[in-house]
Each structure stands twice: as structure tokens, then as C-alpha cells.
Amino acid sequence: MPAHHHPARKKFTRFASKQPFRFGLPNVSAELTQASDNSPAYLTRTTSLLRQQVLANAPSVKIISDTVHPDVLARDAWADTDFDRKRVLFLIPDDAIGDCVGMALFLRAFAVKYPRAKIAVLNSGSASDIFATLSDVTVFQLFISVKRLKTFDYLIDFSEMEGWKDIATMPVNPEEALCEAFDISPIPLASKRSPKLAPGARIGILPMASSPLRTLPPALVREIAEFLAKAGFDITLILNAYQGVMKKYKDTIGPFDQPNIRIVDGFKTIGNLVSFISEQDYVVLADSGPAHITKLFQTPGIGIYSSASAAILQGRHQNLLPWQSTYRGDFCEAPCGLAKLRATVSGTIGCMGSLGVPVSELINLPVNSDKSLAERLVTEKPVPCVADLIAKKEPLFTFLRKDLGI
Predict the structure, then answer these.
(1) pTM > 0.85
(2) Which of 116, 180, 210, 283 is the most exposed place for a label (fewest CB within 10 A)?
């Protein structure tokens, strides 16, 4: 093994197929669908949907190994390696939208420093459309052939970044962390934020996050939509049809009488969502993937944060003005840092404030999902830091009026 190289932290599956095949995820743009290339074998991450739901049941497929660790460039050599004119494949550790936006922003900076390098990403999964916004970056959403793998000079495993194993529960800023790890300056950002809007301007409201800790209360969402519509703006409320709580959440918000408010249940692909955000004049968002997507286009708006820190998640990006919950209770105060619900030893699911326990008693992630609990937390009884957003809504509306000049 070459110096400064070692086996990847993530395990991959090596498989072969007797027949040609094509595969792509249903929530990824069709243009990113992959096809076999007559290679004797292929690699996919063992945790990918392709491995878990397709390969095991495909009669023409033979699983060769589930314990492949490709040879990758060691973390301590990233900053000291010259990637000029090299072919570099980045292994993506997860497909969470926010994390992948941060990785994509880093890759923009990487391409600026090494304009003659050839860049590709592997196992970008549902977030493949995020990486497709980058010019001259090859996207392998689910697998790569052994033939193509051999063409790369370097493989880099992003899961070697410090703190990545905790990213599901404690937010980090991948763009800044990766730029620092590679000793690369982030790309410059637009210097001027000008959210003053004319009547008829397009405003997107995206209130749903993957966790009840970060989803905006339906009553607050309704008031914001009606307030902006009365001010003469064209409002689109975007929900998330892929989330099991969406129907209950939509029913709780209820229908609108104003003709300039429309509700969209969700988009089929992340690419559709990316396009929508790029077209908006202004956005109002929960702490969620769409809030991160605004960084790609510097779309102006307001980000409303509860359990997670706006300062950490937005980092240097000032296109969204942050509104942070100021809840303080006996067991926690916002932002506590949790990104997802936790579970006690006995299996009770919640957060410190909702359960009335210290963080030391919430040491586990929930083993099973509980739809009824999730629905209740996002519609009837939000966790304290989210409920605080309703209790202190007047300062939020003053903040919004000032930013829009209305």
C-alpha cells in the first residue's frame, strides 16, 4: 500500500452481474441514472439502498464480498497532497441534504484551487442532484465499476472527518471543516444582501424538517403565509411528501382563502427542490435541508432555528437572517445542539425539555420510528424550544417586516 494510504473506514459491497443493468433512485433526476459498463465487478456502499433492497434479490447478481475497504488517502495527508491534474474520487458518507450541500460547496473551492483536477463523487444517493449542480463533477449515485475505479489517482473518504460519526445528533459545518482539512480557502460569497421585494415577488415557505425538534409549528406557518400574502407577495408553501407526518401536518395547517397562496405536497426529486429554491426571491425556512440549499444560490430569506445553532449551521453564509429560539427550561435551553430525538434506556422518545430529563439520560437514538408520536410532536404538542417560537411570535413578525421593508 502506498505511503499515506489505508483502507477506507466505510465498508463496500463488491458484486458482479451476468446481465446489463440500469439503476437510479426514484427521488433523483433521471439524467443521473447509472448503467453497467461490462466491468467484471462493481462496488457500492454496504448501507446503500442498492445493496439492501436490490442486489440481494436480483437473480443475475452475485455478491462477491460485503467487507471491501478501498485504498484511500489518509486524513493527515489531505492538506499536503498536490491534486493538480489528478483524478480524485470522493466517497460520500451519507446523503443528508445539509451535509451534502456543505460537501458540494467544499468541492467548488477544491475545483478553484485545482482547476485541472478531475473530480467525481461516489454513493451520493438521494443527494446526487446536489452534486449535479457542480460543473465537471461526475456523479456515481449508487455504484462504480471496478474499471472506472482504477482510473482514479486518489480516493478520499469523507467519513474520516472528525465529528462525522456524530453528525446525526450534533450538527457540524461540513464546508468549513473540509476546507480547513484540505487547507483550501472557501469560495467568495456575494457581498451584498438585498431582500427588498416588490409586490408579486416569489416567496417560498419550507417549514418541515426531518425531526420534530426542527419542524415549524403549523399555526405559526399559517400566520406567516397569510401575513406575507396580505403584503402582496406570491406565496408557495412546500411540504415533504416523503415524510410520514406530512398529511397530518398539512391538515393541521388547513386550506387558505387567499389566491396568492398555494400548497405543494412535495417534489418528486431533490433536483426539483433545488430548482425551486434557485427561482425564489425570498424564503422562510425551518432548520432543514432546503435552508442549506439556499447557500448554493445565496437565496435571501429567514432561517428559523430551534434546537440547533444557527451560527454553526449557517456558518459564513449570510443570505439567511437567523431567528433562534430563546427557550430556557429546567433541563435545557435552546440551542441544545440535538438534531434528532433521543431515547431513554427504557425506550421513551423525546428530548430533554419534552421528557423533563437531563441529557445524560438520553444516551440512545430511537431504535424504531413512532409515527403517532412524531405527528403529535409536530402538530399538537411541539417540544418546548419549538413551542417557544409561537409564544414569542410577535418579535419574529417584527423581524420579518423589517427585513422585507413592509
Answers:
(1) yes
(2) 116
